[in-house]
Predict the 3D structure of the following.
Amino acid sequence: MNTVPFFISLFFHIVGLILAFGSVIVTDLFGLLWIFSRIRFPHLVSISNETKNFIWIGWVIMIMSGIPLIYLKGEIDNLMIIKLFFVALIGINGVFLHKIHEKIQNYKKGEHVPNITMFHLVLGLFVSQLAWWCALAIGFVHRHIQSVINWPPFPFLVCISIAVGLIIIWKVGERIFNEEK
Ligand code: HEM
């Protein structure tokens, strides 16, 4: 660690972070503006149509630079397992958000967007924020506070619990909002 190749990889890791997470923040801020009726829904859809490409590119850069980083560090501790879970969650959720986006794009101007689609969108944005902030916080802690953290004792159990929790929220939401049709 702390060699020239490590810092070069870290540089690209941060470039990917700026590109991807910056675009996530921009998209979500426009989402907030839409919630407070400052912009119209088609405007939000056209913005996220552009930002989603930057998010994917940044995410791929982070993984490509993360692999040499982890190789040079030579250790995958328990907290890193959880970080990798969040990285995978970002990818899976990104596919989910992409599908919702395609669906929303098909609605014509002024057409009512069903509550179930809105629920999917809000859940997707929530998972995106959760996973990005957690991966970011773990990266920060590893780099600036303690390099190796073998906590929590059962990282896979934590990952499974988070995944199960999110699936329960998803299924319960679908039940509630499908009935409202
Ligand atoms: C969404 C994806 C990711 C985010 C948001 C993220 C975030 C971060 C952040 C904020 C840092 C600290 C940078 C600094 O302050 O200098 C960092 C460092 C690091 N990241 Fe990532 N990262 C991601 C993906 C990955 C992946 C996929 C890997 C491994 C395959 C990885 C491995 C590392 C390593 C080894 C470090 C050096 C610090 C350490 O853990 O000892 N990261 N990351």
